[in-house]
Design a protein that fits this description.
The complex is a heterodimer of chains A (237) and B (255). Chain A is α+β, with helices and mostly antiparallel strands. Chain A is 30% helix and 29% strand. Chain A contains 6 helices and 13 strands. The longest helix of chain A is centred in the first third of the chain and has 22 residues. By secondary structure, chain B is of the alpha+beta class. Chain B contains 8 helices and 13 strands. Classes of the chains: A alpha+beta (237), B alpha+beta (255).
Chain lengths: 237, 255
């Protein structure tokens, strides 16, 4: 029992994660939790898993933190040169296909699932899912990471085509929050990035602002506040 | 617009070929066999009076999870062929890129000739077998079908390079569940309607009995005149049998 409790702090950093990418009428919204764990220890409780590739293309990273970081660094590097050569912003499709090339050709070594999302003037808002193995699939919405297991049913029911920006944002925040509630490898805050023709907006939803789900209770500063409240009930004989 | 974007990707690669080659292609490991991650299940193909009919569902499974439900597993190859794939989807996507290049070079000859299903099948057999020999297979079972100059062709290639031709072909579970139906009901002179009905019978059977089957299918048709891949649609299933109502009466706990 005790040897698990201390955990292996030298274990590879993995972002057991919940990541989401959703299209709406006008752009895309990317969302993620903020927990990076090494074994059972939470190495970083405020990570930013939504990473910029270009002004108009961002990715959500899941799986091995190292692998996803290195893939995103290379793709950022390639896209930078591509943009200079092209003379205009890279399209989301090109970015996604570059991610696929790295993921597919190094499939035996990499363990990372990536969601590419962005906006370009040709296709508007697009989301591409690139799971383990390097398959590339364009989707109206994509979910990934260990926490996504708990969201398949939720999205089957809650997803609708043609949502507004606010509806889509609320859906993403709710979904990540639900996944955090059940997935031990997901936690912390919910970060979202909205990308559309007007540009990019980052949002931050701290854990204490998220709704409470089943069997969760309200947070307090101390028991003493509860005891001192008008209804002194908690201490039973 | 799609072609322009592909050319742009190519130009990114060509300017930094050597450097990118080592990153974007892998020549490392001396021995490896991969594991499939996102997989498609059965594909079925039959010859009929006017050509070939092929059917597959649109599922992409991730282990036991049915993760993707809109994966197109039947695609056109040149003017005369269809390819259907089961197995690892990323490898199928790579195969489609190889075939794009094959057809492009064929067109560039501009000699009035074009690769037919038999040639495509042969090419893929070589690709699959050579990868197998390097212990680095493309993890797919492929069905190639088509018509050229009046000759109907239907064949399959597996991830280890086993290839053959037949009047009806299936991959994966289809071999066990669909082929027996086809052996009984297939005829040389099936009409389009009869062919579709037989394929649907097979697909429904697979839906009942294959855990990774998904109820959204496409049926593709290729004839001398041309090819079509149907829009995705679902099959009705039948559960209203007396024997299904109370199956464990008299034997509680059984199943």
């Amino acid at each position: 029992m005790d040897r698990d409790a201390t955990a292996d702090v030298n274990a590879p950093h993995s972002m057991g994660t919940t990541i989401i990418g959703v299209t709406y009428n006008g752009g895309v919204i990317l969302g993620a939790d903020s927990r990076t764990s090494t074994g059972l220890y939470v190495a970083n409780r405020a990570s930013d898993k939504i990473t910029q590739l270009t002004d108009n293309v961002y990715i959500c990273r899941s799986g091995s933190a190292a692998d996803s970081q290195i893939v995103s660094d290379y793709v950022r590097y390639f896209l930078h040169q591509h943009t200079i050569q092209l003379g205009q912003p890279a399209t989301v499709k090109v970015a996604a296909n570059l991610v696929r090339l790295l993921s597919y050709n190094n499939k035996n070594m990499l363990q990372t699932g990536i969601i590419v999302g962005g906006w370009d003037k040709y296709e508007g808002g697009k989301i591409y899912g690139i799971p383990l193995g390097g398959t590339i699939l364009e989707q109206p919405f994509a979910i990934g990471g260990s926490g996504s297991s708990y969201l398949y049913g939720f999205f089957d029911q809650a997803w609708k085509e043609g949502m507004t920006k606010d509806e889509a944002e609320q859906l993403v925040v709710k979904a990540v929050s639900l996944a955090i509630a059940r997935d031990g490898a997901s936690g912390g805050v919910v970060r979202t990035v909205t990308i559309n023709s007007e540009g990019v907006t980052r949002n931050f939803y701290p854990g204490d602002t998220l709704p409470l789900w089943h069997d969760e209770v309200e947070a307090h500063d101390s028991l003493l506040d509860i005891l001192n409240a008008s209804n002194p009930e908690p201490m039973s004989t | 617009m799609g072609n322009v974007i592909t050319l742009m990707e190519e130009s990114v690669l060509s300017t930094h070929k050597a450097e990118m080659d080592t990153l974007l292609t892998s020549k490392g490991d001396s021995q490896r066999t991969q594991y499939p991650y996102v997989t498609g299940t059965s594909v079925i193909g039959i010859k009929y009076k006017d050509g070939i009919l092929m059917a597959a569902d649109m599922g992409g499974s991730y282990g036991s999870t049915i993760r993707y439900k809109s994966v197109e597993r039947i695609k056109q190859v040149g003017k005369h062929s269809l390819i259907g794939a089961s197995g690892e989807i990323s490898d199928f996507q790579e195969i489609l890129k190889y075939l794009d290049e094959l057809i492009l070079h064929d067109n560039m000859w501009d000699d009035g000739n074009s690769l037919g299903p038999k040639e495509v099948h042969n090419y893929l057999t070589r690709v699959m077998y050579n990868r197998r020999n390097k212990f680095d297979p493309l993890w797919n079972s492929l069905v190639i079908g088509g018509v050229k100059n009046g000759h109907k062709y239907l064949g399959s290639v597996s991830m280890i390079g086993v290839n053959f031709e037949d009047d009806h072909i299936a991959t994966g579970f289809g071999n066990h569940l669909a082929r027996p139906i086809l052996r009984e009901e297939w005829r040389e002179d099936l009409s389009f309607e009869e062919g579709v009905k037989i394929l649907e019978k097979c697909m429904r059977n697979l839906l009942y009995r294959d855990r990774s089957a998904v109820n959204k299918i496409q049926i593709a048709k290729i004839t001398e005149e041309g090819l079509t891949v149907s829009q995705p649609y679902s099959l009705k299933t039948f559960w209203n049998f007396a024997a299904f109502q109370n199956p464990t009466v008299g034997a509680e706990g059984s199943w």
